[in-house]
C-alpha cells in the first residue's frame, strides 16, 4: 500500500483536489438556492428555519472543500516544482489543516450552543490572516519576487493562489451574511418584524450579487489549475 501511495501520490492528490473543488462549487450553489426560501416572508418561520438548517448542512461541505484545496494545491505545487516548501513545511501544513478542520466542524456541530460563537470567530479569523498572506505572496510571485516560481510556464500557480485568495474574500462576505441571519431569526420568532424582514431582503440581495463573482473566481481558479496557461 505504501509503495502504491508513493508511486501515485500526485494522481491521488489531483483526484482529491478535484473532489474538493466540486464540493466547493456545488455546495455554494446549494446554499444560494436554499437562501431563497430562508428569506421568503410568505413561508412559515418554522419552514424558513428548516431551510436555514439545510443551508448550514450544505455549507459545511463547501467549507470542507475550500479548506482542503489549499494544502492539496500547495502539496501538488511542491511536487510540480512551482513552490519550494516541502518536507517539514508540508507536515506542518497538514497538521494545521487538521486543526482548522476541527475548528470548522466543531463550530458546525456546536451551532445553537455557547461554543458556536467562539469557534466560529476563530474560523473567521483564520481567513482574516490567510487572505492577505495569499494575496501578498501571489502578487510578489507574479512580479518575480517569490516565493512561488516565476519562470515561463510556472506563473499559473501564483495566479491560481491569487484568484483563490480573492474568492475567500467573497466567502467571508457570505459568511457574515449568514451570521447576520442567525441573529435575525430569534427576533422573528418573537413575532412579525417588518424591519428585520427588510434587512433580510437587503442581505440576500447583497449575497446574490457577490455570489456571481464568487463563481467566476472559483471557475477561474479551476481553469488555472487544469490548463496552466502561463
Which percent bin holds the helix content?
over 70%
CA gyration radius, whole angstroms: 19 Å
Count of discrete structural domains? 1
Integer average pLDDT: 89
How many helices? The count is: 7
Q: What portion of the residues fall into strands of 2 or more residues?
A: under 5%
Terminal CA distance reads 36 Å
SSE class: mainly alpha
Largest sheet, described in full? none
Summarize the structure.
This protein has 230 residues and is mainly alpha-helical.
Key attributes of the depicted protein:
230 residues; mainly alpha; 83% helix; elongated
Would you mind describing this structure in some detail?
83% of the residues lie in helices and 0% in strands. It is mainly alpha-helical. The protein has one domain. Helix 3 runs antiparallel to helix 4 (88-109). The model has no long low-confidence stretch (mean pLDDT 89).
Write the layout of secondary structure elements.
Elements: H1 2-7, H2 9-38, H3 45-80, H4 88-109, H5 116-142, H6 155-189, H7 194-227
Helix pairs in contact: 2-3, 2-7, 3-4, 3-6, 4-5, 5-6, 6-7
